[in-house]
Design a protein that fits this description.
Layout: E1 3-7, E2 14-19, H1 23-42, H2 45-61, H3 63-74, H4 78-103, E3 106-111, E4 114-122, E5 125-129, H5 135-148, E6 152-156, H6 162-174, E7 182-184, H7 189-196, E8 202-206, H8 209-219, E9 225-229, E10 235-238, H9 244-256, E11 268-272, H10 276-288, H11 310-323, E12 327-330, E13 345-348, E14 365-371, H12 374-381, E15 389-393, H13 397-404, E16 411-414, E17 433-434, H14 441-444, E18 447-455
Parallel strand pairs: 5-6, 5-8, 6-7, 8-9, 10-11, 10-15, 11-14, 13-14, 15-16
Antiparallel strand pairs: 1-2, 3-4, 4-18, 9-17, 12-13
Helix pairs in contact: 1-7, 2-4, 2-6, 3-4, 3-6, 4-5, 9-10
Bound molecules: nicotinamide-adenine-dinucleotide.
Nicotinamide-adenine-dinucleotide binds next to helix 7 and helix 8.
Length: 457
């Protein structure tokens, strides 16, 4: 049997060898999921909701153990692992509370002997190929509404968050979700590729643009529901009337939280020339105050870089920015191991010739560009192929709304950043993906609306 080795990115030590899937086991699991799905869908919705409520109880009960597991395999600071698990509870409550109103059968017309009805039926067997950076959030955004609406789920956690994925499976099974209805698949890219070869009714992916493109090429011609939640190059503009210190502290957190490894991390900052210098000074001071170190330490703010190859991406962006005239204020290099470490890095005097301002960094590194006014800021913010989030800092809500409505992004932030809400749709414009998770749309996504035409007289 093949195994997957799990390493701690903060010190390079091996944590575990886990039995892994292969093409044959993926096919066998898919067949079992297919056989089990109809029975699960036939259960009363109240039963499925109770399973998720018990799953929530398990998360609360085991929260500390789950946080430690996540921190050990991803290098996420322990305080942020706890935050993710506590934040998950509100998402679970939203899904459990909203599944019934969203999926209830609705009579939309009943006149002249004709009744018309919309019914929501589950897609069937769905695959979820997931990322490691917020392994509970991104998987449960898919798994939970999929199960609530009566689907069977084949879930491939990232190879960098496998132990967390197996904990999710354990808790769902303990909560009463049948083993065949929810099955984890262990392995790296090739196991994900094997899943794509199966007969699926939906494929929900969270990860990089590069992998998303490959998945779209395989799934696209098969008329299977496909959702892709991909990366971004999320911009923020700080207007001349904003308080530079308040904005700097908020945006330093938005850029560096989770060691900059968030899909909605602030990745580009544009600052009006009138307050640029004050903003930059406050930003650099805030970043220099971030504690870098052992992710198990309560006080740590900057943890490890989860994937070793990302260090090369960060090095290349730094070298390219410096070669093209950017000014480095702090960081700019790897930190000594063992493990994967990068110093929090701030550049000013950047522009759009630089990779740092064009391609996702996914690390604790940021470029701050001076702009002459609102028009220049809007043009620069929209100068991207991505479109996940975008923000504006100003005390003037009318100015913020005017600017934000012109931005090409799925989520808009006024005086805040790096924020996700269960009540709002999460989606990307452009190369940030297709489809929606969260909100009522992110429940509907796991169903097919079926039309009933009924002659009553
Ligand atoms: P990744 O694309 O490297 O891997 C994602 C998943 O795809 C993993 O489970 C991996 O094993 C699998 N995979 C790799 N090759 C495959 C193949 N050929 N066929 C099928 N599956 C394959 O991404 P990652 O490093 O795990 O995640 C980081 C990326 O995810 C960043 O770009 C980030 O912005 C993005 N992300 C987006 C969101 C969002 O909501 N939009 C949320 C979190 C992360």
């Amino acid at each position: 049997m093949t195994t997957l080795s799990i390493h701690n990115p903060a010190n390079g030590e091996k944590i575990a060898d886990v039995p892994a899937d292969d093409a044959a086991s993926v096919a066998a699991k898919t067949a079992r999921a297919r056989a089990a799905q109809a029975g699960w869908a036939a259960r009363p919705l109240a039963d499925r909701k109770e399973c998720i409520a018990r799953f929530r109880d398990g998360v609360v009960r085991d929260l500390e153990k789950l946080a430690v597991t996540m921190t050990r395999e991803t290098g996420k600071p322990i305080s942020m692992s706890r935050n993710e698990l506590n934040g998950l509870l509100g998402r679970l409550d939203f899904f459990v509370g909203m599944v019934e109103p969203v999926t209830a059968t609705e009579t939309v017309y009943d006149e002249g002997g004709m009744r018309e009805r919309i019914e929501h039926v589950p897609l069937g067997v769905v695959g979820n190929i997931s990322a490691w950076n917020y392994p509970w959030f991104v998987s449960c955004n898919v798994i939970v509404p999929a199960l609530l609406t009566g689907n069977a789920v084949l879930y491939k956690p990232s190879e960098y968050a496998t132990l967390t994925g197996l904990e999710i499976a354990r808790l769902l099974h303990e909560a009463g979700v049948p083993e065949d209805v929810f099955q984890p698949l262990v392995g790296a890219g090739p196991v994900g590729a094997s899943l794509l070869e199966q007969k699926l009714d939906g494929l929900f992916f969270t990860g990089s643009y590069a992998t998303g493109t490959r998945i779209a090429q395989v799934i696209g011609p098969r008329f299977v529901k496909l959702q892709l939640e991909l990366g971004g190059k999320d911009p923020t503009y700080v207007c001349d009337d904003a308080d530079p210190k308040t904005a700097a502290e908020s945006l330093a957190d938005g850029a560096m939280y989770n060691t900059g490894q968030s899909c909605c991390s602030v990745e580009r900052i544009y600052v009006h020339e009138k307050i640029h210098d004050a903003f930059l000074a406050a930003f650099v001071e805030t970043v220099k105050g971030f504690k870098v170190g052992d992710p198990m330490d309560e006080a740590t703010y900057i943890g490890a870089i989860t994937r070793t190859p990302q260090l090369d991406v960060l090095d290349a962006q730094v070298a390219d920015a410096q070669a093209k005239g950017a000014q480095l204020h702090t960081g700019g290099q790897r930190l000594r191991g063992p493990g994967n470490w990068y110093a929090p890095t701030v550049f000013s005097n950047v522009d759009h010739r630089m990779e740092l301002m064009r391609e996702e960094s996914f690390g604790p590194i940021i470029g701050i560009q001076k702009v002459g006014g609102d028009e220049e800021a809007v043009a620069l913010m929209n100068d991207t192929r991505y479109g996940l989030t975008a923000g504006v800092y100003t005390p003037d809500v009318a100015r913020a709304e005017r600017l934000l409505s012109r931005l090409h992004a799925g989520s808009l932030y006024w005086n805040c950043c790096d924020r996700v809400s269960p009540r709002l749709p999460w989606s990307g414009f452009g190369d940030s993906g297709i489809g929606i998770t969260l909100s009522t749309y992110g429940i509907e996504a796991f169903t097919r609306p079926r039309a009933w035409h009924m002659r009553t007289a």
